């Protein structure tokens, strides 16, 4: 296949995009105590500014350009044209997929968390909003990283900046959950990513990503056992991707307030994980090397286990957020599975699922939070009949569930379709069984929730006083995100164009 | 190696003796406040003066610069010889820059015998700068021993409850090392035509057997100072009992004397012995990294935690030195500076909080994020730096050392990696407790202006070295290359002789 090299645009717009959430965080921190309205204003303004800035790069990138901006040249390179250790940003099609999602959903999340935090009269709202903005700063940094070092830096930054969010309640449960969170994420990063990064540097003399998904960084001369080891380090080192057995942090982090769960599951944290994994697979190893060493299909089967197992566990959970958490673990592996199919359709299915899962899952979490704020109900068994009181919330929940299941016309269908086609292309027919079984499991754990909410009776003996729909600041964002889920299901071109550009 | 004499300048002499003059002035200065101010002025002046080293340093040569060479005791051939190269310049500057911060950090912490305390600090500075600049072995030894007394006094007079035990232990350990050092020095003197001049010794080709003996003596002396596992037991005791500034000096500068000794003496004077013993030293370093990490993880006393973390961090430094390649040695050098900055800052912070709560236990300082936002911000920065967070100074050091180690031996590098994981584990454990465990205490105040001023310069260096280490790396390139050439060419010569 002939690979067209992109034209490099050296532009500080990348730096501005990165700085906007940081400035937003500063604004929130500075004005937080005096004026809550101004504080939330800062968040929203930064979110909108960031989204527009990222969007402004889309056309140029689709036209075959790549933005690049070097911030710090830390250790000079030994290979001409490549940096040694540097903090450099890039925006290619792959970056934009994630950056657009993260910045777009930040707008919705900023509105939503305003409603949630005020509705529950939570403490330390300034710290919360500051850390939220900082986590977005980290996520944008990951999206725009031009080399493994920059990606590692921002990956770690996301772990640290979200810690206070998970520990927000500062009680015993939050303490334990947050401890698990940070231990899993930093241990895997330090223990696996750091040595992987150093080994790659020792082997190649640079950490710069190539500009396409085929050639990889390692070249042909590296021993295969070393490549396989690095590949495994990459799969488990980015533990934010939730691949079993390093997924325990995710259900543990459920103690956090719901907007944080939304952030963790849809906007930033887990998406940082799968983004980094996909970036690692496609740009460090590359499709050619992965095909040569037959790394794709075995990995696809391996993550297939996570898909099924997590779905099975989700079935057993009565706590709505816990069920959603295991659903996330399962859905994230769809993305990795798609990438590992190594066929154009498989990779597209995986990458487009970053967007599809984000919009649908954030809707589900927004709904869970809205239900909690309006009714203080956490368990699915208590939600029977609530749909008649909260039609908008449960309506949106139903739509997003359909997307998770992969039913048309919602976004998840596009993923399933692409993945199935990719599987057939790759010839690994066992994967089809995994996808089908997982779809059935998805139906089994999602469909009853909406069904019972609308058609079930309220549980006997429960006294519900003053049940009503959640506040508008929450209902509007969740309806919006579920509407977007439908829109990108009917018209997936917005993200699909970028995915096509990644594949080349 | 040549000595480039700087005529009529005597910059190094000034840097060494200004603190001593300051100490003399302190004797006749009345009033505690004045004494503090005088000590601050003297150390700050010295720090500013040391900038002249930076601006006047020629990065293109590996020779000793700013040289001074006078006859001192002609009958014994002892000289007054000074000079610095790319290996010592950063350590001299680290010393001069850390001292004003030590004075500032002890401003209110030390309330009894202020004059004597400041005099001890200033004499320490003279001795430390002297050690890094000396090119005559007797002169070196005089400064080396000169550090012992004021440090002993700092611990024994201004220390905590177990100060007697800690100070005696520190004294005995270091003295034991010094005796071995003296034996090695005399042996070299006899083998070197009755000269104590260090650069001459580097140009000799001693027999391998002789080198092994000398290396052994050097190694013991320096391994105690670093301290390398299993010679480290004096360190936690000394750190815990020493007053804040004492711990800072110990961690930031004194520990570097050991690793400086390896670089300055072991590698160039006994290269064949060094190469022969590399595997043992490397595994000992790995043991130190892991031992320090695991032990730090189990501590409930913040100072002990940082003390054991030092054992781990210094293990990385010795690892970098003995892989004997450019990345490793340069990483080790920059990591020596980083450790001085970060661990120094952490000890300063612990003494600041100790002033308020009179406790060093982690459990007494839980949940401070609520009421001490400035304190926890600084603590977060320095803790992240200590665990080698990317974009902070320690990351660069750790990265280069591990790149060097992977280039030398993948198994040893793999064995050291858990040390990096442990560093994250114990520092994050500390941070978690101090920031978020419970709802915090309301009876203590946040850092004041003086304390912020003390810590801010260190924050600047954390990010400066983390993001743009080029100026710091530039000064060492030539010297490190020359040093490694010396080591490796001696191997080639020995191999030729064998055939």
Q: Could you characterize what this model shows?
A:
- The complex is a heterodimer of chains A (504) and B (499).
- With 504 residues, chain A is mainly α.
- Helices cover 71% and strands 4% of the residues of chain A.
- Chain A has 19 helices and 3 strands.
- Chain A has a 3-stranded mixed β-sheet with strand order 1-2-3.
- In chain A, helix 5 (125-143) packs antiparallel against helix 6.
- The longest helix of chain A is centred in the middle third of the chain and has 33 residues, at 172-204.
- Chain A is globular and about 70 Å long.
- The model of chain A has no long low-confidence stretch (mean pLDDT 86).
- By secondary structure, chain B is mainly alpha-helical.
- Chain B has one domain.
- Chain B has 19 helices and 3 strands.
- Chain B has helices at 11-27, 32-56, 89-105, 114-133, 137-146, 148-158, 163-191, 198-202, 208-225, 234-241, 244-269, 271-297, 302-322, 326-357, 373-386, 393-408, 410-436, 449-467, 470-498, and strands at 3-5, 64-73, 78-84.
- Chain B has a 3-stranded mixed β-sheet with strand order 1-2-3.
């Amino acid at each position: 296949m002939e690979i067209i090299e992109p034209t490099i645009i050296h532009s500080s717009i990348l730096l501005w995009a990165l700085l906007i959430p940081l400035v937003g965080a500063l604004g929130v921190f500075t004005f937080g105590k005096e004026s809550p309205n101004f504080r939330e204003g800062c968040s929203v303004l930064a979110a909108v500014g960031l989204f527009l800035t990222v969007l402004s790069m889309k056309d140029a990138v689709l036209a075959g350009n790549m933005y690049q901006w070097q911030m710090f040249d830390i250790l000079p390179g030994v290979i001409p044209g490549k940096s040694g250790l540097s903090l450099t940003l890039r925006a290619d099609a792959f970056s934009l997929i994630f950056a657009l999602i993260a910045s777009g959903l930040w707008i919705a999340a900023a509105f939503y968390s305003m409603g949630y935090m005020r509705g529950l009269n939570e403490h330390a709202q300034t710290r919360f909003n500051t850390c939220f903005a900082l986590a977005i700063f980290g996520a944008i940094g990951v999206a725009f990283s031009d080399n493994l070092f920059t990606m590692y830096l921002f990956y770690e930054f996301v772990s640290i900046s979200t810690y206070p969010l998970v520990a927000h309640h500062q009680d015993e449960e939050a303490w334990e959950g947050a401890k698990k969170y940070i231990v899993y994420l930093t241990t895997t990063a330090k223990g696996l990513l750091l040595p992987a990064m150093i080994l790659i540097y020792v082997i190649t003399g640079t950490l710069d990503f190539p500009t396409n998904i085929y050639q990889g960084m390692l070249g042909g001369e590296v021993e295969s056992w070393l490549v396989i080891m690095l590949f495994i380090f990459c799969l488990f080192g980015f533990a934010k991707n939730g691949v079993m057995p390093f997924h325990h942090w995710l259900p543990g982090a459920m103690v956090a307030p719901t907007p944080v769960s939304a952030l963790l599951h849809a906007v930033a944290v887990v998406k940082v994980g799968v983004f980094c994994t996909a970036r690692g697979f496609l740009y460090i190893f590359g499709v050619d090397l992965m095909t040569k060493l037959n790394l794709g299909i075995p990995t696809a089967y391996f993550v297939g286990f996570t898909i099924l197992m997590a779905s099975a566990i989700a079935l057993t959970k009565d706590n709505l957020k816990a069920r959603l958490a295991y659903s996330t673990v399962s859905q994230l592996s769809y993305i990795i599975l798609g990438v590992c199919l190594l066929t154009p359709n498989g990779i597209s299915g995986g990458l487009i699922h970053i967007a599809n899962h984000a919009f649908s899952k954030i809707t589900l979490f927004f709904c869970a939070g809205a239900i909690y704020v309006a009714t203080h109900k956490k368990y699915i068994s208590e939600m029977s009949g609530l749909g008649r009181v909260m039609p908008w919330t449960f309506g949106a929940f139903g739509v997003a569930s359909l997307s998770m299941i992969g039913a048309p016309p919602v976004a998840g269908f596009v993923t399933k379709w692409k993945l199935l086609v990719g599987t057939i292309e790759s010839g690994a027919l066992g994967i089809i069984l995994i996808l089908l079984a997982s779809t059935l499991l998805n139906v089994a754990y999602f469909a009853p929730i909406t069904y019972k909410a609308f058609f079930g009776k309220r549980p006997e003996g429960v006294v519900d006083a003053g049940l009503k729909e959640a506040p508008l600041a929450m209902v509007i964002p969740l309806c919006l995100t579920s509407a977007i889920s439908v829109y990108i299901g009917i018209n997936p071109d917005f993200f699909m164009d970028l995915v096509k550009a990644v594949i080349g | 190696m040549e000595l480039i004499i700087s005529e009529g300048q005597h910059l190094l002499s000034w840097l060494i003796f200004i603190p001593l003059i300051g100490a003399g002035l302190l004797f006749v200065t009345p009033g505690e406040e004045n004494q503090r101010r005088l000590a601050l002025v003297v150390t700050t002046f010295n720090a500013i003066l040391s900038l002249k080293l930076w601006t006047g340093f020629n990065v293109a040569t590996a020779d000793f610069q700013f040289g001074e060479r006078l006859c001192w005791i002609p009958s014994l051939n002892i000289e007054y010889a000074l000079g610095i190269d790319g290996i010592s310049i950063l350590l001299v500057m680290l010393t001069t820059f850390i001292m004003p911060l030590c004075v500032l950090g002890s401003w209110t912490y030390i309330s009894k015998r202020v004059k004597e305390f400041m005099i001890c600090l200033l004499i320490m500075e003279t001795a430390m700068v002297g050690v890094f600049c000396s090119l005559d072995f007797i002169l070196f030894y005089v400064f080396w021993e000169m550090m012992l007394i004021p440090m002993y006094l700092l611990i024994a007079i201004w220390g905590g409850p177990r100060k007697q035990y800690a100070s005696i232990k520190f004294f005995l350990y270091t003295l034991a090392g010094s005796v071995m050092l003296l034996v090695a020095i005399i042996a070299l003197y006899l083998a070197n035509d009755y000269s104590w001049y260090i650069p001459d010794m580097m140009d000799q080709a001693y027999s391998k057997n002789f080198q092994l003996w000398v290396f052994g003596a050097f190694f013991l002396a320096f391994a105690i100072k670093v301290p390398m596992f299993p010679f480290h037991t004096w360190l936690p005791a000394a750190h815990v009992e020493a007053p804040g500034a004492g711990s800072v000096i110990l961690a930031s500068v004194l520990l570097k004397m050991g690793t400086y000794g390896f670089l300055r003496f072991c590698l160039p004077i006994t290269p064949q012995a060094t190469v022969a013993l590399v595997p043992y030293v490397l595994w000992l370093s790995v043991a130190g990294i892991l031992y320090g990490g695991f032990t730090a993880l189990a501590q409930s006393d913040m100072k002990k935690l940082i003390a054991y973390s030092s054992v781990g961090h210094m293990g990385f430094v010795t690892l970098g030195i003995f892989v004997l390649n450019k990345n490793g040695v340069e990483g080790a050098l920059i990591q020596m500076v980083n450790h001085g900055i970060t661990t120094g800052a952490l000890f300063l912070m612990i003494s600041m909080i100790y002033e308020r709560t009179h406790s060093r236990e982690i459990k007494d300082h839980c949940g401070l994020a609520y009421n001490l936002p400035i304190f926890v911000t600084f603590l977060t920065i320095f803790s992240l730096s200590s665990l080698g967070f990317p974009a902070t100074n320690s990351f660069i050091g750790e990265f280069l050392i591990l790149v060097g180690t992977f280039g030398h031996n993948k198994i040893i590098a793999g064995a050291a990696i858990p040390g990096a994981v442990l560093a994250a584990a114990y520092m994050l454990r500390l941070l978690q407790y101090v920031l978020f465990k419970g709802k915090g205490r309301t009876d203590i105040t946040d850092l004041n202006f003086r304390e912020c001023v003390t810590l801010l310069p260190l924050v600047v260096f954390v990010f400066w070295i983390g993001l743009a280490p080029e100026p710091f790396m530039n000064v060492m390139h030539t010297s490190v290359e020359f040093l490694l050439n010396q080591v490796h060419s001696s191997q080639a010569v020995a191999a030729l002789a064998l055939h």
